[in-house]
Amino acid sequence: MKKGGPRTAFQHLLELVKWVDIVVEVLDSRIPVSTRHPKSRSLFGNKPHLLVSTKEDIADADRVRLLFDQSPVLKDERCLMVSLKGGDNPKRIIKEFVHMGEAAQKKLAAKGFRPRPVRVCIVGLPNVGKSSLINWLIGKRSTRVGNQPGITRGTQWVRVHPQVELLDTPGILPPVAFHPLTYERLAMFNLVPEAKYDYEVVAQKAFEDLRQIYPHLLAKISEDLLDPRAGIAEFAKARNLVISGGKPDVARGAQIFLANLRDGRLGRITFDRLANEENLDNSEAQDAWQDDESL
Ligand SMILES: Nc1nc2c(ncn2[C@@H]2O[C@H](COP(=O)(O)OP(=O)(O)O)[C@@H](O)[C@H]2O)c(=O)[nH]1
Ligand SMILES: [Mg+2]
Known about the structure:
Layout: H1 9-17, E1 22-28, H2 40-44, E2 49-54, H3 61-70, E3 79-81, H4 91-110, E4 118-124, H5 130-138, E5 143-145, E6 157-161, E7 164-167, E8 171-172, H6 180-188, H7 199-213, H8 215-219, H9 228-238, H10 250-262, H11 282-288
Parallel strand pairs: 1-2, 1-4, 2-3, 4-7, 4-8
Antiparallel strand pairs: 5-6, 6-7
Helix pairs in contact: 6-7, 7-9, 7-10, 9-10
The site of guanosine-5'-diphosphate has 16 residues, from helix 5.
């Protein structure tokens, strides 16, 4: 780890984690394997942790459950899937915290400390749904807790249950140390800065993934299924996105295609691959990927 100089995002997270009993890593159900941070095991490995996969309402829940069972980076973890857009009840997750906290309480009691509520923090990549999850867990009836150790100015504990306190500010896991192919998948779902990838390349890759996993969804929007470039051109033309001479505006087409994919308008999808499927398995790619110690 670097000495001196400004603290890295990872150092900030390590500081944050000192204050809590349970770490919740937020995943995106469209790519639950790819959104597990390659560094999370080494950062939070010996803290009790729970993986919460958001956006169930726009994901392929059956595929997500299979990935929870099969994926090398998820199968040994406690994973829960939620939709933060209506329907789901936060009590299910809060109960899980209470249950997980019982072990931490016993430890404290054994050291002679008075029992206190279990402390939970939420971490994850940008845009996976951390803030939405915090707001959903806090709801309307929770109370702010005064006089508690804070981590940085502006952060606060919120009591979401008599035995559970939640940190109201999430820890952001920086999108670094990913395999380039995983990074591309993060780009598809708007989880990395736009300036860092080529829209058209990523849209074509998404078109290809859609063709491989959900050909029936793709068939609704394009007849040219084999060539992603032609497919997206066709998509653009069908939406009247044309440039001079009536040629399809492939740049705009790629943008609208990705926007529709991301907001669920193309259908409920999950792009990470199962064990029996060809193509990249992210977890293996991540294992094989360099372990960059400079982070
Ligand atoms: N459809 C759907 N959208 C969600 C869900 N959770 C989060 N989002 C959306 O995902 C985007 C990022 O969420 P946000 O909480 O700001 O992510 P953060 O950057 O991790 O804090 C927002 O547009 C949310 O409305 C969910 O369960 N379902
Ligand atoms: Mg946020």
